[in-house]
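Weekly modeling sync, notes
Attendees: S.R. (lead), two postdocs, one rotation student

Agenda item 3: backlog of single-chain predictions. S.R. asked that every request posted to the team notebook include the full sequence so nobody has to chase files. The rotation student volunteered to paste the first one in as an example of the format we agreed on. Action items at the bottom.

Example entry:
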Amino acid sequence: MEYVVEFPFVVVPLREDPLKLLYIGLDTKLRPLEVITDTSNINGQPIIIHADKLTKANEKYLGGKR
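Predicted structure, as returned to the notebook:
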């Protein structure tokens, strides 16, 4: 999960809460993941609050046709 945050393909602010960011990338086993972080803490460092395999709904952020 941390690898996706360090080396994302795409970072998108969430519409509902711009302090939460959606990271899309590959993990160390080359599986596509989506990770959501919250940066509203006092030092602004991202805290991972959700991680899962990449969903069809978020594939649109990668661009291109699928």
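Discussion: group reviewed the output briefly. Residues 13 and 21 are 4 Å apart (CA to CA).
Action items: rotation student to repeat for the remaining queue; S.R. to check formatting next week.
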